[in-house]
What we know:
With 82 residues, the chain is an all-alpha fold.
Amino acid sequence: MDVVRETVARTVPTINYPGATAFHNALDTNLVAACTREKTPEQAMADVEREWKRIARRIGEEKLVEAIVTQKQAWPTIVDPA
């Protein structure tokens, strides 16, 4: 059981928060656009920033911060040496 305990302590859980899918989709869409040269990398990242700000405003920044702080309790507590 020690192996399970140590493995779980090192496992990074998915961070669930309001709008997570929208944030990921905005990043994915723009990364693909940059990789396929539909946009420059700079333009793609500028578009991600604009979309993320819009998503955060729609959801509410305080609500996002609260969700992330609450979930931080489930994050790993062991850091392996590099």
